[in-house]
Amino acid sequence: MINKQLAKLILNEGLSTGADFSELYFEETYTHSINFDNGIVESIGSNNSTGVGIRLLKNNRSVYGYTNEIDKENLLKLVKKLRSAFSSKRKIKCKDFKDKKVTNINENDESYFLTPINKRIEILDKLTKIIKKESKLINRTVCAFAGDKKSIEIFNSEGLHIKDKKEHTRLIIQAFSVKGDKHEMALNVPGTTGSMNYFTKKINLEKIAKDVAKDAVEALNAKDCPSGKMPVVIGNGVGGVLFHEACGHSLEACAVSKNLSTFTPNRLNTKIASSLVTAYDDGTIKGRWGTNNIDDEGNKTTRNCLIKNGILKNYMVDRFYGRRMKRDANGSCRRQSYKFEPTTRMSNTYIDNGKSTPEEIIKSTKLGLYAKRLGGGSVNPITGQFEFSCSTAYIIRNGKICERVKGATLIGTGEEILKNIDMVGNDLDMDTGYCGSASGWVPVATGQPTLRVKEITVGGSGGKIQ
Question: What are the helix (H) ranges across 105-250?
Fold first, then answer.
């Protein structure tokens, strides 16, 4: 940790050549993982890292640097190098620090790091046996735990001093299938910022493992997906990655403030989506993968309504890009580690529940695609143009889910999709992932209920849908 006397010295040095804001971020991280491959402990690993990042702001300019040598001499060396970016006289000095208390959102009654390794291995072994038992076509399983815990401390020139602890635990459940020369894979990756109780009491691991096995085996007989414009029903949970990528990034201040977004500030309080769509970025949901007590500027996380009944209501904003937009930061600033300058990022981003049931949505679709799970994709935040693959998809015929298909790709723009949503389910769920951007890879949750887009361009090599 950094003592207050040293922190104040460093921050004042940063302000001495005209910066109007200085910030010091300390971080200590410990990671641990267990990899269980085909019923055998393949590896157990751990790692420690410690470092400090220093940021200086002046108007709409920013400089950042970091070091893992956190003694006084090296911190002074770093901040003096950074302050050389500014050349005017000092206008302000660092205020006296006022300690700010953090309220812990998450459960921490049984930390992953305090759970005996044997107990973790027992869970992985049980999952492996469940998957193997489902089918002789499963030729390999990979089950793993990965956890990290961080202690952070933030000082800034406005007098903020705050400490926090963060913990993430993820469980990887993966099945590989083979039939002749065909090979397929399926996985599910539940994760939490809470305790191990999430895995042992709050979710049904047996069902998840069976579903993964079923998905891997079923994929062996999938047909090529037909192409063309058609209704697409997108499954709950992992389907939320489409909103995250196609729309969420376009609502981050780092894009909006530079006019690199289709949703520029002059569109606030205008209709950008179907009236059925209400969407949030919420960093306060207990135990969720993207939840934090505070963001990486020391601001309390919030439940931020982005879209309300189709109307654009707000953005995700950090301190630096908030200056350009003349908007206050709202707990949306994140970074991978001290090696990255923080910026606007999503946390738990989702479309909220509607009034339809999933069964009603499927039943009312005469012919279309059911995208149960989405895979990788790309998006241009300036235009909103996206392209997403479907890792698990089926054809809907006469209101029933029919044959499994492969190679399905969804093509369109974020705004087009938002406006074409004509049914929203009542089965909201979320999925875990990592989002990569300017401040590195951060844990995020994406979510939505089952919903239908009345028309999307679907790419595939199976001819026209019929």
Answer: 117-134, 197, 205-218, 241-243
* Cβ pair 317, 343 in contact under 8 A: no
Q: 43: buried, middle or exposed (CB in 10 Å: 19+, 13-18, 0-12)? A: exposed
CA 93 to CA 83: how far, in whole Å?
Answer: 14
Greatest alpha-carbon pair distance for the chain in Å reads: 74
Does a structural domain hold residue 113?
A: no
In angstroms, rounded to a whole number, what is the distance separating the alpha carbons of residues 146 and 168? Answer: 8
In a domain, 395, yes or no: yes
Nearest to 173 by CA among 142, 198, 148, 200: 142
Residue 144 lies in a domain: no
Q: Closest Cα partner for 185 from 406, 432, 444, 430?
A: 406
Spatial neighbors of 207 by CB under 8 A, at least 6 apart, are none
Q: The tokens of 208 are what?
A: 């998840």
DSSP state of 108: -
Backbone angles phi, psi at 138, to 5 degrees: -80, 115
Residues 6+ positions from 181 with CB-CB distance below 8 Å = none
- The pTM assigned to this predicted structure is 0.94
Which among 455, 458, 456, 451 is positioned nearest to 239, based on CA atoms?
Answer: 451
Asked if residues 370 and 356 have their Cβ atoms less than 8 Å apart, the reply is no
Contacts 24+ apart (CB under 8 A), 99-105: 99/161, 99/162, 100/160, 100/161, 100/162, 100/298, 102/162, 102/163, 102/164, 102/293, 102/294, 103/293, 104/293, 105/193, 105/284, 105/286, 105/291, 105/292, 105/293, 105/301
Domain ranges, residue 299: 224-459
Read off φ and ψ for residue 80, nearest 5 degrees.
Answer: -70, -35
**How many other C-beta atoms lie within 10 A of the C-beta of residue 312?**
21
Q: Is the pLDDT reported for residue 466 higher than 90?
A: no
User: Which residue bears the tokens 């890292």?
Assistant: 49
241 or 336: which leads in pLDDT:
336
Q: What is the DSSP string of 318-381?
A: -HHHHHHHT----S-EE-SSTTS--EE--SEEEEPP-SB-HHHHHHT-SEEEEEEEEEEEEE-T
Render pLDDT for 57-69 as a digit per residue (tens, 0 to 9): 999 999 999 999 9
Render 155-173 in DSSP notation, one character per residue.
EETTSEEEEEEEEEEEEEE
Residue 466 lies inside a defined structural domain of this protein: no
Domain count, the chain: 1
For tokens 């015929």, the residue is: 397
Backbone angles phi, psi at 247, to 5 degrees: -125, -40
Within its chain, how far is the Cα of 178 from the centroid?
A: 32
pLDDT digits (tens, 9 = 90+) for 12-42: 999 999 999 999 999 999 999 999 999 999 9
CA distance 235 to 358: 9
d(CA 253, CA 383): 16
